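Lab notebook, bench 4. Still working through the backlog of constructs that have no structural model yet. Next entry is a single chain of 140 residues. Request: give me the structure tokens for it.
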Amino acid sequence: MPGWTKPTVDTKFHIDYSWWEQSGRNFRLYLLEQLCDECRKRFSTHRETETVDWVDPETGEVTEADALLQCLRNECAQRPDFINERTPLATAVFRLFLLNGNRPLSPREMHATIRWKQPQVILATIGGPQTYLGIRPLRD
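Model written out:
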């Protein structure tokens, strides 16, 4: 593959949304599946959840937001089982990117949250030839 370089523990990764489109998978449907059981009961479908009025429970401020992401970030992420040792590694990395707004991170940086896996193990999972959940190295 021309221009490809082998990723390292310092290579930045992100969710490549074009992978979801190209692979024919529905990102929104998978996002719905990441919600905790309580939040999943609130949303019968992933449709028409992209832009909703979201009320900040502390300030009362109303902003436009993605309902599924807001629920995931504000409620599901507070649960101790959202990202833990039993979460499959690719899913844990995917959820980490959902929480941080898809800000690129290296396996070394991911290790700060996914402490039970060394950066080299994270790299071996997401930096190989198979793409999991659209997680790919950031291209310059």
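Notes after review: Strands lie at 13-15, 52-55, 62-65, 135-137. The mean pLDDT is 89. Flag for follow-up if needed.
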